[in-house]
Amino acid sequence: MIIDDKAFQEIRTQLERYIHDKKLRNSEVRYLVLDAVRTFPKHFTVDDLQEKLDKGKEKISLSTLYNTLLVLLDAGILLRHSLGPKAEYELRKKGETHLHLVCNRCGSVREVRILPSVLRPLFDAAKTRLEPDYLTLYMYGLCSRCKREQKKLERKQNTKSNES
Ligand SMILES: [Zn+2]
Ligand SMILES: [Zn+2]
Fold first, then answer.
1. 3 and 70 share a domain?
2. β-strands 88-91, 78-81: how paired?
3. Protein residues with C-beta less than 5 angstroms from the ion ligand 1
């Protein structure tokens, strides 16, 4: 899923406001990075992003890229997931719309769309003094591929024990 033009314009405005409020230098690089971020339908790592940006005209160093990601995180534009060995990112606006199904065995992540009406009761149920901003959900288990593998393994072990 790619975010539509209207939603993306809102994100750009959010970044403009953040840069203004924090009195940061208004460098074009942040917008270049944001444009690249938008093209990922799923989560991406810093490596994915760097690879994509390397194809562009302007060369962006890794340290600038990390700094820009920090800005985007702090501005509430990006979400950072720590699911695998490498941190993954996605636009927060997108991340709020789905449930993450994470396989405990292979680490694969699948996204399932979730309606805001499903999330709202969770905000209420939390009964916290924290003013809720957003919510990301993870569900952990065994993915279908790993489940098949496991069944295969079990069958193999069964035939072995029947033979002996
Ligand atoms: Zn996601
Ligand atoms: Zn799996």
1. yes
2. antiparallel
3. 90, 95, 111
- Please name which ligand lies nearest the alpha carbon of 40: 1
Considering the domain architecture, whether residues 107 and 161 belong to the same structural domain is answered as yes
Return phi, psi of residue 99, to 5°. Answer: -95, 140
Could you tell me the distance, in angstroms and rounded to a whole number, from the CA of residue 97 to the centre of ligand 1? 8
**Total domains in the fold of the chain:** 2
Structure confidence at residue 43 as a pLDDT band (50, 70, 90): very high
Q: Which ligand is closest in space to the CA of residue 148?
A: 2
Which residues make Cβ contacts (< 8 Å) with residue 2, sequence separation at least 6? Answer: 38, 39, 41
What CATH number does the domain containing 144 carry? 3.30.1490.190
How does the average pLDDT of the chain come out, rounded? 89
pTM of the full structure? 0.81
How far apart are the CA of 91 and the centre of ligand 1, in A?
A: 8
